[in-house]
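Give me structure tokens for this 100-residue protein.
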Amino acid sequence: LESRVGEGERAVASASSTITDLQRHASQAIQSRTSTTERLAELTRRLGNAEAALQATRDQAGRSDKDLVKLRAEAETAAAAVDKELRGVRELAEEAGRRA
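Here you go.
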């Protein structure tokens, strides 16, 4: 009987040790999962920030392109006006030369 009690005590001690090990492993797994979840949340936040910055850059580039097209059109209009004025000045100079 004492032998069986000793075996039972050893079995209980072994089971208790196994339970303690399993609890420790479970705790480590929970901590690891929590850490992974926090890391994923941080990466998701950073990805969102990067996407917002990219969209802002795209928006700015689009506005810049539109501004450049508008400025080019204004420059071409101004150049045409200057050319017209120069033609008028040349014609006046030629007419003045003929009269002189």
